[in-house]
């Protein structure tokens, strides 16, 4: 039968689909919406069946059921587990033994590591430093990203000091690097429209940029990664800034991989590779083996763009991140992007995603501290990425030293992602991480763009409210102000690295 399991490779399902027969009207909406073949209709029995082993928990069927007849539940582990051998350890062994391959996963690490954002509290004003009402008094969230000067010289009322190119954003929030290939055309279109309306920027990711999206010139950051996919003069010219990708928080130390089945004719043309071939980015840039080599690439890109665009360098948060960031700053980067290990990815080996790297909170705090000690912090901008979930994470990131943040996973959740972690399969039921033309149509660029605009605008209002409660009328006054934060349920060493006091102090 169609739903018979293969006992040789069987592992218990993660989810259980419950269908209420009294509510189900057999409209087959669930059958049409499921892209993982977990729901199917049996004509002989006139019955809709669910195959739990194929359910990924995307909840598309439940969302589209007109009578709310479907519920998706997490299955409890059938194994006799203990503290050492939990469900994921047992299942991990069985899958590797059955299939003979290393599991590839998507999105960010889902192990129960501590989330430091949730262990920091924000200060508020009371008597001596009155709060500010953002509805009645001006509140400045505008941010400039790029290399800064030590001082300004003015002669005869005119600025004499030459300034480096800057990116100006209305809110300290930008859309993170997600490539055309990992995401489809409609999603990139929606993100571009949202960036344009919000007065911010979106990052092309390492897959080049479809020529239709050159229309967003003025709101684009392009990426130059180790594979150099889609990198050419026109691509660089359309950018407002160029980002050199050295590492990614979700998979530090390894390259990227876009499976051949996702490389359509359009993506192949954009990436300048043959259709249907795997797009493999090497782990290192093969022309970068030292800080001096990185400096050469930074200035090669500056030369190629006539020194008119700031150069970003993106590095993953790892154990010696402070020293690495110091070297990157001294190599000539205008902006450093720090990517934490809670960041998302379209595909990564599970062992790398779940075990390698550092949380963005610790990486950001240590880098900000190191650059201050070396007198470099005031000359360079920092962007925090990888694990920004809400407006208060943005506030806390800026207090720890960031100038702005990138949001990636939150961007996708806003337009429908349900975190089923199946991006690498190319079968995204919500039409986001897929190149299937039928599934891609599930994303309407107009609706998706408006949802992103709504999200970021609401975050902006919440940030203003919070600044007002703190008695601060400018985001610049919050930057690196760790006295605005207090920690709880953290040990002494964690507090020391974060550079914050304990709650009550």
Automatic annotation (TrEMBL):
GO biological process: glutamate biosynthetic process
A matching Pfam family: Glu_synthase
Binding residue positions for [4Fe-4S] cluster 1: 24, 27, 30, 65
Name of the top EC class for this enzyme: oxidoreductase
Catalytic activity: 2 L-glutamate + NADP(+) = L-glutamine + 2-oxoglutarate + NADPH + H(+)
UniProt-listed CDD domains: DMSOR_beta-like (cd04410), GltS_FMN (cd02808)
Sites where the protein binds [4Fe-4S] cluster 2: 34, 55, 58, 61
Domain 4Fe-4S ferredoxin-type: residue ranges: 15-44, 45-75
Keywords, comma-separated and alphabetical: 4Fe-4S, Amino-acid biosynthesis, Glutamate biosynthesis, Iron, Iron-sulfur, Metal-binding, Oxidoreductase
Gene3D superfamilies reported in the protein's UniProt record: 3.30.70.20, Aldolase class I (3.20.20.70)
EC number in record: 1.4.1.13
Superkingdom: Bacteria
GO molecular function, one term: glutamate synthase (NADPH) activity
Family of this protein: Belongs to the glutamate synthase family.
Protein name: glutamate synthase (NADPH)
């Amino acid at each position: 039968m169609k739903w018979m399991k293969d006992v040789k490779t069987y592992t218990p399902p993660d989810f259980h689909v419950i269908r209420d027969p009294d509510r189900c009207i057999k409209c087959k909406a669930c059958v049409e919406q499921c892209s993982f073949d977990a729901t199917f209709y049996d004509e002989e029995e006139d019955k809709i069946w669910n195959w739990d082993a194929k359910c990924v928990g995307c909840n598309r069927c439940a969302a589209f059921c007109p009578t709310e007849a479907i519920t998706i539940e997490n299955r409890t582990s059938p194994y006799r587990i203990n503290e050492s051998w939990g469900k994921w350890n047992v299942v991990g062994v069985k899958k590797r033994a059955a299939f003979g391959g290393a599991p590839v996963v998507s999105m960010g690490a889902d192990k129960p590591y501590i989330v430091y954002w949730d262990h920091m509290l924000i200060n508020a004003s009371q008597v001596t430093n009155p709060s500010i009402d953002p509805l009645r008094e001006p509140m400045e969230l505008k941010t400039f990203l790029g290399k800064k000067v030590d001082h300004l010289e003015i002669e005869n009322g005119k600025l004499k000091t030459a300034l480096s190119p800057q990116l100006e954003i209305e809110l300290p929030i930008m859309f993170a690097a997600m490539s055309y290939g990992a995401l489809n055309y409609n999603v990139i279109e929606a993100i571009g429209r949202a960036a344009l309306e919000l007065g911010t920027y979106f990052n092309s990711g390492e897959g080049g940029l479809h020529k239709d999206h050159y229309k967003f010139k003025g709101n684009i950051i392009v990426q130059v990664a180790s594979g150099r996919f889609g990198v050419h003069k026109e691509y660089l010219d359309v950018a407002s800034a160029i980002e050199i990708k050295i590492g990614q928080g979700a998979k530090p130390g390894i390259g990227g991989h876009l499976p051949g089945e996702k490389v359509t004719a359009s993506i192949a043309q954009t990436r300048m590779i043959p259709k249907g071939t795997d797009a493999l980015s090497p782990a290192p840039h093969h022309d970068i083996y030292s800080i001096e080599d990185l400096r050469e690439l930074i200035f090669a890109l500056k030369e190629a763009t006539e020194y008119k665009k700031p150069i970003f360098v993106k590095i993953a948060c790892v154990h010696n991140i402070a020293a690495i960031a110091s070297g990157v700053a001294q190599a000539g980067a205008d902006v450093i992007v720090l990517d934490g290990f809670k960041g998302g990815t379209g595909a990564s080996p599970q062992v790398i995603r779940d075990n390698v790297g550092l949380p963005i909170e610790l990486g950001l705090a240590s880098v900000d501290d190191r650059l201050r000690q070396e007198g470099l912090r005031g000359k360079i901008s920092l962007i925090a990425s990888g694990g920004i979930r809400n407006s208060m994470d943005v506030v806390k990131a800026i207090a720890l030293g960031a100038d702005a943040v990138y949001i990636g996973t939150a961007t996708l959740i806003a337009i429908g992602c349900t975190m089923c972690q199946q991006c690498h399969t190319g079968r995204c039921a919500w039409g986001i991480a897929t190149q299937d033309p039928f599934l891609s149509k599930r994303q309407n660029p107009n609706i998706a763009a408006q949802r992103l605009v709504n999200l970021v605008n609401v975050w902006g209002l919440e940030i203003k409210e919070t600044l007002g409660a703190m008695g601060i009328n400018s985001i610049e006054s919050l930057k690196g102000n760790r006295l605005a934060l207090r920690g709880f349920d953290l040990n002494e060493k964690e507090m020391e690295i974060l550079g914050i006091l304990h709650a009550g102090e």
